[in-house]
Hints:
Elements: H1 2-13, E1 24-28, H2 34-43, E2 47-50, H3 53-59, E3 67-70, E4 88-92, H4 95-108, E5 112-119, E6 129-130, H5 134-142, E7 147-154, H6 162-182, E8 188-191, H7 197-202, E9 207-210, H8 212-215
Parallel strand pairs: 1-2, 1-9, 2-3, 3-4, 4-5, 5-6, 5-7, 7-8
Helix pairs in contact: 1-2
Amino acid sequence: MIEENVRKILHEIEGGNGKGEKITLVAATKTRTPEEICRAIKAGIGAVGENKVQEFCAKFGLIDGAERHFIGNLQTNKVKYLIGRCDLIHSVGSMRLAEEISRLSVRANVTQDILIEINVGGEASKGGFPYEEAETARKQISALGGISVRGFMAMLPESEDLALLTPLALKMRRLFESARERDEKISYLSMGMSGDWRLCVEQGSNMIRLGTAIFGERNYAQNVPHDTVISPSDGE
């Protein structure tokens, strides 16, 4: 099933998004076993994204052949486990987090690629910078050492109301295009998950994060490895 799902999705997106741009498919691998992830990579997945630092660390040495992304909520005390190991952090939604990424990246003499998370729907339950502060945040974060801002990430509200979702997706695309005119490093608009990715792609997203569409429904009882260097005091 995994292999068939990957092939179908890759075939569907091979023509690019609504702007004719190549689409990067990120497999969202929360609760997925290394065996499942390796099957997806072998089928053509080029990037995998973890939601939890503990799983990122546990699976790090067990999979190969794909970029490693972090797509979940990131606490500042967990940043140290990603620096130098993560190709792209999608969820930088505060200056405090950006500053910690910068501090540790400079100390490690690396440059960390990140996306700025935008709360485009203004939802209290979600993190990220308010849409109105997005350009200011981009300028401030871009000025930090050890960080390369590569674009934006957003999650649309959970809704089937196209009249609600389409304008929000278009707002993110306008933000992306405006920023790209100012900074040539801006490359990615990460927007679209298993329930809304087709709408997002149509409106100009060029990076989508799919979990159930690739792996099927999550089984939270699966035996996912948890041997990590994270101490209990770090929490999760």
